[in-house]
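pasting for ref
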Amino acid sequence: MKYFLTLLGLILVSQSFSQTRITNHYFLNPAVYNSSFVGYSHYTEIHLNRRQQWQGIEGAPISNAFDLQIPSGRGAFGFKAYNEQNGILDHSSASLTFSYQVPFNVNHGLRFGLSGGAGINSIDLDEVNINDPAVNQLSDNSLKVIGDFGFAYYYKSLYLGFALPHLFTDSLVSQESFQQIDFSPTDNYILSAKYTIELAENRIAFEPNVIYRVFGNNESQFEAQGILTFLNTIWVGGSYRQDYGVTTHVGLNIKDKFSFGFAYELASDQVSGFNNGSHEFHLRLRLGKKKEIKAKEPVDRDVITDTIEEEKQEPAKEEIEEKQEEDEEEKIDNKKEEADASTGEKPSEEKPQKEDVNNQQTKSEVISKANTTEPEVESPEQPIENNVKQGIKEEQIAKEETADGTSDEPVRLKKGKHLLELDYGHYVIVGAFSQFENAENYSDKLFQMGYENTFGYNSQKQLYYVIYSESNSSE
């Protein structure tokens, strides 16, 4: 009778080995189902989870999991270890994960994740006295390759995910000690959505989660969950998983660093009357400080366009003013010549030259730029280091030459009133453009390649500069 119940339990839950790991605390660790969520909180996190199904039934599944997530810039690294004991079956696995974030701005972007590792399925045939050649030929230990892929789109508090939890076919039992690698990523997939609603700022928050799984045997499973958090400290909630039933949740969060959750899953229809339900415990530890990702703030194009139109009119005004000044000087020279002629003095053959406007700006602050002409911009596809080196070279030239080429003082440029006007300082320039759109597009491409940068405008040069690094010092 003991062996009959054991085999019955295996029949009911054997799919748990070949399907996705089941947990009720995915709202604390969504990376369980989607690798792109590794490091999404920007904290270094440790997750410990223990799940005991169908308490009261001998040989019922018991699982333990360990997850480590370490964010690093836009990327994150993760390690997962998992073990499940299910009667005479035992499954263990370990994998490494890398995720990457592509932010469009501060609260909008994409995430990608990829995991790879190995697992082993073990069968204790000594516990079952079955004289069957097919059973006796099964391997006690079967090693396999595992992997998964995840993708997520986020906008503020909304996250939409798509995951391929099994990139390779996973057999529960095998006659081979090493299972054949069969790449079949689309046999199983998971769709998910989560959102956080602030019902009372910093006091009450509600987080609904929805998951839809599709298995390789053309079966599917739907799950919905709702978590209500008070003062970011205590949470209660409930969930429903198709074919499993209802689960209740309660948990405690201390200073957003230590979180402990408990979930009680009511007995499903399959084993109702035989057990007291399932219990699950989850512990989350956050270490260190939050590592934020710097993203470019959106630029108000309407304001920039209006400013550019105003700037286009300034050169014409300056030409008119210069023409008026030349006319005034010419009138003064003519009057001086007439006065000299009336007194009998010989007029000077040389007219006084107009004082160079740039030389009058010696009291202006220093903005170390490139040469007075627009620098040649390399293609964004080329290594950024070339542009950075070029920018450093241009900055050195700027310190050696001035407008007349005779001084060791830096080039002195007048600061205007443009909306994006650069402040006084030294800059390493990797691109210069006469059009705002070109400068913004180039800055965006560099940002997507992983290089922090900014761009600004200089009114005297009438150029937009893409800047890799800067110093506020004017020395």
